[in-house]
From TrEMBL:
Gene3D superfamilies referenced in this protein's UniProt entry, alphabetically: P-loop containing nucleotide triphosphate hydrolases, Tetratricopeptide repeat domain, Winged helix-like DNA-binding domain superfamily/Winged helix DNA-binding domain
Keyword DNA-binding annotated: yes
InterPro entries according to UniProt: P-loop_NTPase, Sig_transdc_resp-reg_C-effctor, TPR-like_helical_dom_sf, Tscrpt_reg_LuxR_C, WalR-like, WH-like_DNA-bd_sf
Entry-linked Pfam families: GerE
Domain HTH luxR-type stretches: 839-904
CDD domains: LuxR_C_like
Keywords: DNA-binding
Residue span of region Disordered: 477-505
PANTHER family: TRANSCRIPTIONAL REGULATORY PROTEIN DESR, TWO-COMPONENT RESPONSE REGULATOR
Stated name of the protein: Helix-turn-helix transcriptional regulator
């Protein structure tokens, strides 16, 4: 069987199946209808090969005594382990459920019986099932749902149809199957319009296993009222007081308060909030209700909301109490049109408190009630834009598809294309986003020049992410002069008239001018407009403008302004509920912290940014955050973390054309190699990024990796390659956009300089670091200087520099580099602080220099590679290696690798035991103190 998604759940099932030959166990599969409980049970049954599979159904054995049921199961398992499956156990009658639950609790591991039950998620807490270990099923992720859809349709669904099917299914596989089954081949291929609503009562009831109903009229009204209120709350929980007030309007006679009466099993009450346990059941209750009763419930909710001053939600419920647009001559149609206009106007009113999700729902409903094609498309586009701001691209794309019509005015089509391009920029191939945004700029040029300029700048963002310098320059080219009678473009063309300094168009204009000058190498012309963008950000409150301010500050190398702008953009986005802008603000903050050398802070921002980006469906933004996390981890002792983030970042970057994220991830992998004493690997990786040629890294990133490459290349003996990139790096350092570049340039020159010049260059680099700040880069320079001093037999000076390097690395959490500094101090005969006597007894026979050589050889390095890494001659390595072989009693490099590996593993075990003992002592002391 092919099962889409649920990989964690299958691992849990596989663990149960694999253990059955030796001992039994139980698992409870719980999930809402349609998520595949039955499919997983069937998968487990077909995967089990060690013995028979019994499918248990309620009959005399399960309704009878627990002892009889246990005897039956144990007898079946006497000859071989047995898997017992019970699907939908929550539907059994009470005696059978009780007997099954007791039998499950009384089975012993020696019985070799695997009991696998499935129940609806709301019944997993029932007394008979609560003691069992639970595996919860999740909705399918967007990629898994897309794979299922492709399987169901053989990939025949048109792109717009595909997006709408995935959005309506909300990750529920049974609903996706029901929706596909509903469509004809012509509808599936986009040749005919889709039915409205796409997820109708029949499809929803099929996926949910029927339409749930309460046992009384009050219970049915309660279910429908909660379901209807949830339509405006995007399916989330709703105020129980609101539900009670609406029920009183439905039934004037006194009715029980839902907060005081037992609730139907489909609902759960938490405090003063009430919700459905299953989103699918909520949608099914709403869709399958009697239409007239449903409209009555919405009218009651509208009255309650409007009386409480909630204009937007009240209007929305009022609109749902109406039918769709009818022939223009009817009063119902005029009423619907008036309601649609009012709803759209209130949704557009920024003074009305409402979330982006609610505004998206209001605009979409207004569009449904609008007969005029152009106005309907405008409202669908506005709904899509609000859905994007809410971090729901899966909702935005179907709305944009509904707005698509070639007969619409250019301005309407341009606005839709702008929103589509922004969605693709965050979650799609950036080449596609570039073309969509260019088309938007062209369509908006006459009627909405400010929006056209914003679209053009967003198009430049797309090719910037792609690393296409010629396309970026072309996109940032000055606009032609505005036509007579049209609003000014605010361009930098000779005939353009500038927008006021406070106007958003001025920010766009200045940012574009500064970016283009910077990319053309006209550094003298780039500073002024970019500084204008930064300065305006100091008084801005709009998150979009603050993001531009932070981006301009990063281009200028003003790290403090970038951090301030990013933090203010983050606060503004959170305050406005702009879920789509939060990951971007965190991205700028993470980059600013990296540029400042504050890796722990960068990691913190990137971790939150990754979570919010994935939640908002922004895979491109997530790739950038993963690249930052890889860079942060590359200085720590976490090679597995680096590899994981690099792999994940490159997976998206390569598929979506994200050259910037790819370059950062590859730099992170190389820096991890360099930190772990593998300069040859680091030089090979970095050479592809920084040396001239078609495979060079992103035009705005590769210079940042030059200092790492120079260090790796010198250690690997590639001095000419190192010198080849310093001329361009010197120009970059002179511009001043990177506060660390001047000190790094002096360090690079010191690495390549003759002995009589290197001393002064290292000192100059440290002086520049003192001006720029940043523990990590200063510590790296101190480490290299200390190594150089030790090789020149100046131990006292070397010890001071190496001690400062160790302190700097420890302060910024650079564990892997701190280890290098400790090794260098040991080679000088100095015991680094905090190291104690952790060396294993066997390796303790070696001198510090011999230990370093042994570790390099154990990792597979040749004698020449060891010599280059340690800055000694090959003859010195040969001499020490003979001593190592004699001290350890080994005869080959392979045997040496085994001995070193075993000794270091024993050391790690000893340290772990010591740490555990220390924790026990600490806990004992705490306990004693409490007593």
């Amino acid at each position: 069987m092919r099962v889409h998604g649920q990989s964690d759940q299958r691992k849990a099932l596989r663990a149960l199946l694999d253990a059955l030959p030796t001992h039994g166990g139980q698992l409870l599969l719980a999930g809402e209808p349609g998520l595949g409980r039955t499919t997983l049970l069937q998968w487990a049954a077909r995967s089990f090969r060690a013995g028979p599979v019994l499918h248990l159904r309620p009959d005399a054995r399960t309704r009878g005594s627990v002892g009889h049921l246990l005897d039956t199961l144990r007898t079946a398992a006497a000859a071989a382990p047995v898997l017992v499956c019970a699907d939908d156990a929550h539907l059994w009658d009470a005696p059978a459920r009780t007997a099954l639950g007791r039998a499950a609790r009384r089975l012993h591991s020696a019985d070799r019986v695997g009991l696998l039950l499935s129940v609806a998620s709301d019944r997993a807490v029932a007394p008979e099932f609560a003691p069992l270990p639970v595996v919860l099923l999740d909705p399918l992720s967007p990629p898994r749902a897309a794979a299922l859809l492709d399987d169901l349709t053989d990939g025949a669904a048109a792109p717009a149809v595909r997006e709408q099917l995935l959005a309506e299914a909300e990750g529920n596989p049974a609903l996706l199957v029901a929706l596909v089954r509903r469509l004809s081949p012509a509808e599936l291929r986009g040749h005919r319009p889709l039915p409205r609503p796409l997820a109708d009562a029949t499809a929803l009831a099929e996926a949910a296993g029927g339409a749930p109903n309460g046992q009384s009229a009050h219970a049915r009204d309660l279910l429908l009222t909660v379901a209807a209120a949830g339509e405006a709350a995007d399916g989330a929980d709703v105020d129980a007081g609101l539900v009670h007030d609406a029920l009183r309007r439905l039934r004037p006679a006194p009715e029980p308060d839902p907060r005081a009466e037992p609730l139907p099993g489909q609902l759960v009450l938490a405090g003063d909030r009430i919700r459905f346990r299953s989103p699918l059941v909520r949608r099914t209750v709403h869709a399958t209700a009697d239409p007239e009763r449903r409209r009555t419930v919405h009218r009651a909710l509208a009255d309650v909301r409007e009386s409480g001053g909630d204009r937007l939600t009240g209007l929305l419920h009022h609109s749902w109490s109406l039918g769709g647009p009818e022939p223009a001559s009817t009063s119902a149609d005029r009423h619907a049109a008036v309601t649609a206009d009012r709803l759209a106007a209130v949704a557009a009113d920024g003074a009305v408190p409402a979330s982006h999700r609610l505004r998206a729902t209001a605009y979409a409903r207004a569009a449904e009630l609008t007969a005029d094609g152009a106005r309907r498309a405008e409202r669908y586009t506005a709904a899509a834009e609000q859905a994007l701001l809410a971090g729901c691209p899966e909702r935005a794309r179907p709305l944009l598809a509904a707005a698509r019509d070639r007969a619409l005015p250019a301005a309407v089509r341009g606005r839709a294309e702008l929103v589509r391009g922004v969605a693709e920029l965050r979650d799609g191939p950036v080449g596609d986003a570039h073309q969509s945004l260019l088309l938007a700029a062209s369509l908006l040029a006459v009627d909405a020049p400010a929006d056209a300029a914003a679209a053009a700048l967003a198009a430049a963002d797309a090719v910037w992410a792609a690393g296409d310098l010629p396309a970026c320059l072309a996109t940032l080219a000055p606009d032609p002069p505005p036509r007579a009678g049209n609003p000014a473009h605010g361009s930098d063309g000779p005939a353009g008239t500038s927008a006021p300094a406070s106007h958003p168009a001025a920010v766009v204009r200045d940012h574009r001018i500064g970016m283009r000058a910077l990319l053309e190498g006209r550094l003298d012309r780039a500073g002024a407009p970019l500084r204008q963008v930064v300065e305006r950000g100091r008084t801005e409150v709009r998150p979009e403008a603050l993001l531009r301010s932070a981006a301009a500050a990063l281009l200028l190398g003003d790290v403090a302004a970038a951090r301030s702008g990013g933090a203010r953009a983050l606060a503004a986005a959170r305050q406005l509920g702009s879920e789509a802008l939060v990951p971007q603000a965190l991205e700028y903050l993470a980059y600013a912290e990296l540029r400042a050398g504050r890796h722990p802070q960068a990691r913190t921002h990137a971790e939150e940014g990754l979570r919010t980006a994935l939640r908002a469906g922004q895979r491109n933004t997530a790739a950038h955050h993963r690249a930052v996390l890889a860079l942060a981890a590359s200085i720590e002792e976490e090679p597995d973390v680096v590899a994981r983030h690099v792999t994940a970042a490159l997976d998206t970057a390569l598929r979506h054309g994200l050259a910037q994220a790819a370059t950062l991830a590859q730099w992170a992998a190389a820096r991890a190699d360099l930190g772990r004493g593998r300069p040859f690997d680091a030089a090979d990786r970095l050479g592809l990024l920084v040396l001239p040629g078609p495979g060079r890294g992103h035009f705005a990133v590769w210079r940042l990796a030059v200092p790492c490459f120079v260090e790796a290349a010198v250690l690997a003996g590639r001095h000419e390659d190192a010198r080849a990139v310093l001329t361009e790096f010197a120009g970059w350092a002179a511009f001043g956009a990177d506060p660390q570049a001047a000190a790094q340039l002096a360090r690079c020159h010191a690495l390549l300089a003759p002995a009589e010049q290197a001393d002064d260059l290292y000192r100059r680099a440290l002086d520049r670091h003192a001006e720029a700040g940043g523990d990590f880069e200063r510590a790296r320079t101190a480490l290299l200087y200390g190594k150089w001093l030790r090789r020149r037999r100046r131990p006292r000076e070397a010890r001071g520099r190496l001690g400062a390097a160790l302190a700097g690395f420890e302060r910024c959490g650079a564990g892997v580099w701190a280890a290098q500094a400790r090794d260098e101090l040991r080679a000088l005969g100095a015991a680094p602080p905090g190291t104690g006597t952790a060396a294993p007894t066997l390796l303790g026979r070696l001198t510090p220099q011999q230990l370093r050589i042994a570790r390099h050889v154990a990792e597979g390095a040749t004698n020449r590679e060891v010599a280059l890494a340690l800055g000694v001659s090959t003859r010195t390595v040969d001499y020490h290696l003979r001593k190592v072989f004699a001290a350890l009693g080994v005869r080959s490099r392979l045997e040496l690798a085994r001995v070193v590996g075993q000794a270091e593993q024993a050391q790690e075990t000893q340290e772990a035991l010591g740490a555990r003992a220390a924790r026990r002592v600490e806990q004992h002391e705490k306990t004693g103190a409490q007593h």
